Write the structure tokens for this entry.
Amino acid sequence: MENIENVSGLVSEYRCVFDGIPFENDERLQRAITKNCDWTQEASTQLIELARNYGVFMLRNALAIAIVLNKEDGEYGF
């Protein structure tokens, strides 16, 4: 899990991927993730839903726990 503790690079990447897309347009955000980040349609949908439903506070804590538990890939297989 090299550099998994530093997500600033991913934040920069997704800012570029989402550039010019209205943040309320989930379908366009999902398409951008699928096209530019090699995620499947199902995974891109899940990523947007996770962000919308849980937000930064919950997800950053989940990330910290996943790092401690050494869970690079979860049970859903994305």
